[in-house]
Amino acid sequence: MTVIDAHHHFWRVDAQEQPWRDERHDAIARDYTPDDLATELSAAGVDQTVLIQSVDEPAENDRLLRYAEEAPYVGAVVGWLPLADPAAARAEWDRVGATFHGVRCLVGRDPLEWLRKPDSVELFTELAAAGVSWDVVPVTAEQTDAVIALAEAVPELRIVVDHLGRPPIDTGGWEPWAGQLARLAASPQVALKVSLGLDLLTALPGWPDQVDRYIAWAVECFGADRLMLASNWPVVLLQASYQEAWSALRSTVERTLSGPDDLAAVLGGTAAHYYTTKGQP
Known about the structure:
Elements: E1 4-8, H1 34-44, E2 48-52, H2 58-70, E3 74-80, H3 86-96, E4 102-104, H4 118-129, E5 133-136, H5 141-153, E6 159-161, H6 177-185, E7 190-194, H7 198-203, H8 212-222, E8 227-229, H9 242-256, H10 260-275
Parallel strand pairs: 1-2, 2-3, 3-4, 4-5, 5-6, 6-7, 7-8
Helix pairs in contact: 5-6, 6-8
């Protein structure tokens, strides 16, 4: 079984601006490089990773490709495209896109109504035909509704919803998150990452003990074949070390799954399929 961390980043703070980072994130305001992660992966028993963009600019794509060359454990790269501007997205795809296994852009809390536009649907249809997955981090109910609409409009597009779709763990809430997760899962090409994102990690006072029921619902909705375990390192360091976060999420998943085949899927098989990682046909 190949164990894959399906979501992490690298950055050098002097190389680019990170508009999403503010004074609440001073703990991660330093460089994070392939050498930094290699030790963590070895200790956690992780074989491969999926490297994800964290800055919206063409230079980020060039950095990602260099990082992937430095880090032999990177099995796939999710690069940046300006997806809200289909013409610009096609131009950047023509420049570097063929080297990527997936694409995304940062959406923050911005409205995603542009996903419903005909030219956006056409762009995502083209990406689907190229065999590319789309990663997205919806953190509001309105954003998730827009992602659901796109999944229904382009059923051939592999969509990866990051960070459990931002469960309301910080407030102890349930709806509308739970209902929307079920609606996302109704589109069979949508997968979900078992990880915690920046928005939630910023809001939490510490690593959550009450994550179990949210992961259990994700398992019930998606099944093991559409779930993938992910650290979101180094963002996760806001609340826990790599080892603490990976162990906690893995243990919760193991308690929820029905057997070793399901565990193998969540720990690597799903990511290998959605991103066509190294060693996959």
